[in-house]
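Human:
Care to share another protein and its fold?

Assistant:
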Amino acid sequence: MEQAMVQQAIEGQIMNMAQVLEEQIDDKLHQLDNLNDNDIEKIRAKRLADMKKRQAKKAEWMKNGHGEYNDLPDEKSFFAEMKGEERMICHFYRENWPCKVMDKHLSELTQKHLETKFVKINAEKSPYLTDKLKIWMLPTLALIKNEKVENYLVGFDELGGTDAFPQEWLVNNLVARGMLFDDGEAARKPPTEATSTRNLRTGGYTRQMESDDEDSDFGDE
């Protein structure tokens, strides 16, 4: 008896949801049916204005160096590149395998996400920045909003703990932190807290290639 009542309640909820959805669709169809030429022209003009606004913004981003993944020559360049930027991702790197993996992904993302500026800087040649920002493991991404470092992505722990992570996992992480616009393409999520907004300073990774001469710890020879 109790199971039948639960089933009946579930069916009732489903019917109510279907009815609400049907009413919403009917309302939209009614609005479309009652559009006159003036309404259609207003919609068309608004879409055109929005398109022009987006194109102007893209042109501004590209003028400011978005779409390029530049290797900064010195620490002064870091502050110059950051000036006036809403979103900037700076990859602190050294010449090792994990940083090359991150480089590959960022090089591709900088073309796909013009809304964010991507740069990189050699951590071993940037003692002031690495000390000030407490960079201790590489790769580290400094996530900068409105000229302020708000968060970090350190190592590969939040990307599944492996250097073979899918690019979607990195995108999901950066979208969750407000560093990239959600383009709807990245759907798969890693088996870790990739959407964490905490200021995590732990990292590391699992090597997928056999080599003993490179690691992700900053300062190791």
Q: What stands out?
A: Residues 2-33 form the longest helix (32 residues). The chain is about 45% helix and 15% strand. Strands lie at 69-71, 87-93, 117-122, 140-145, 148-154. The helical segments are 2-33, 37-63, 75-82, 97-112, 127-132, 167-176.
